[in-house]
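Journal club prep — side note

Before the paper discussion, L.F. wants everyone to see what a predicted structure for a comparable chain looks like in C-alpha cell form. Sequence:
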Amino acid sequence: MGRKTQIQPFMVIEDGDMSSGSHIESLPTHCKQTDVVQYVVNCEDGQATNGEITVEASFDGKSWFPLDFGALINLDGASGNHQIIIQQVSFSDIRLNYDKTNPAATGTFTAEIFCTTKGA
C-alpha cells in the first residue's frame, strides 16, 4: 500500500495587519514526507502595492533560504488573492513572510497552508 501523508489546511497568518510593522512571519510548518505544499493568501481592504510575500524553506528548521518563483508576489487591493503551489518538496520546513514595501500600507491578510502527497 502506498504512503499517504496529509496536513489538513490551517491558518499560518490570521488578520495580518499590513499597516503596522514592516515584517510578518508565519510559524514554520514541518512538511517532510509531503510532495505538494499550497499556500492561499487573501488580502482585504488594501491599496496598491502594500508589500511582498516570500516563502522560505529549511532543511533543519534553523537555517532558512528563500524559494525563487521567478516573479515577485505582491499584496495589493486589486489582486490580493494568491495561490502558491510547490509541487516538489525537497526540504523539511517551510514558512511564509510578508514585507511591507509601501509606508502607507493598509489592510489585513490571511495565509493558509495545505500539504499532501501525490500517491504511492
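L.F.'s comment for the group: The domain at 6-116 is CATH 2.60.120.200 (Jelly Rolls). Keep this in mind when we get to the figures.
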